[in-house]
Amino acid sequence: MALFTCKDVAFAYDGVTAVEGLNFEINAGDYLGIVGENGAGKSTLIAGLLGLKSPGSGQIIMGEGLRKNEIGYLPQKSPIQRDFPASVYEVVLSGRLNRQGFRPFYRKADKKAVEINLKRLGIEELRKRCFRELSGGQQQRVLLARALCATNKILLLDEPAAGLDPVATRRLYELVKAVNKKLGISVVMVSHDIESVVRYNSHVLHLGGRQLFYGTVEDYRQSPVGRHFLGGGEHA
Questions:
Q1: Is the pTM of this model over 0.85?
Q2: Using CA atoms, how far apart are residues 229 and 217, in angstroms rounded to an integer?
Q3: Residue-by-residue pLDDT tens, the chain, 236 positions
Q4: Smallest Cα–Cα separation from 150: which of 122, 116, 182?
Q5: Is 39 helix (H, G, I), strand (E, B) or coil?
Q6: Which residues are CB-neighbours of 93 under 8 A, at least 6 positions away?
Q7: What b/e readout covers 188-220, taking b as 16+ CB neighbours within 10 angstroms?
């Protein structure tokens, strides 16, 4: 069974439909890129997968024993995030909060998860640094480590490369791809960068107020929607 299955899902705000006609699955090991123009419903769908917004119609079904507190989430970057006055270690450790329940202290397993993810993302040397003093690329790697501390099943990333320079963007995409391939963690990433999605991802969901396309990257390249938005060229 899929981690997520959407069946005829639609979302609305104040009675006005934001996105509709969503029918797709997210399976173990998938790397799904959600693309579309502003207002297409991408972030609304992420909120729905997180359980923060209920569909106006249709069903979102969670499978494979997945629970809401086992989803790693990296939201769009905000000024509050950028200026967060905590150490890198503290920020990454906070990714374990949803697993705490009523326990007042972090366990050894929580601290071990931090060490593992600092190393995975190559940021061990930043552990004592203040988060707000880091570059944009470093901050996103820290927040990705935080999200990984929450899950070993699926990551939801909402425009993780927004505001990054090309070098930091490429490095982030390569890290996320490695997490997907080497750890087998499913990834769902909202992005405006369609060319990077077809380079790194396995599947594409293209929204435009409704589902315009869902399928593999290979099929997307050959589809009318993909050809239109990719300009009809070849993309490796």
A1: yes
A2: 13
A3: 899 999 999 999 888 899 999 999 999 999 999 999 988 999 999 999 999 999 999 999 999 999 988 999 999 877 666 677 899 999 999 999 876 666 668 899 999 999 999 999 999 999 999 999 999 999 999 999 999 999 999 999 999 999 999 999 999 999 999 999 999 999 999 999 999 999 999 999 999 999 999 999 999 999 999 999 998 544 44
A4: 116
A5: coil
A6: 106, 110, 111, 114, 149
A7: bbbbebbebbbebbbbbbbbbeebbbbeebeeb
Show the tokens assigned to 74: 């990296």
Verify that 50 and 81 share a domain, yes or no. no
Domain coverage including residue 179: 1-65+153-235
Pair 87, 145 in one domain: yes
The residue assigned the tokens 């939801």 is: 156
Q: Distance between CA 218 and CA 216 in Å, rounded? A: 5
Last residue of a domain, one of 151, 180, 198: 151
How large is the greatest C-alpha to C-alpha distance in the chain, in angstroms?
56
DSSP type of residue 99: G
Whole-angstrom distance, CA of residue 22 vs CA of residue 211: 6
Neighbours of 181 (CB within 10 A): 13
Using alpha carbons, list the distances in angstroms from residue 24 to 31, 39, 134, 152, 185: 13, 20, 38, 22, 18
Give the separation between CA 100 and CA 81, rounded to whole angstroms.
22
Q: Select from 126, 151, 176 the last residue of a domain.
A: 151
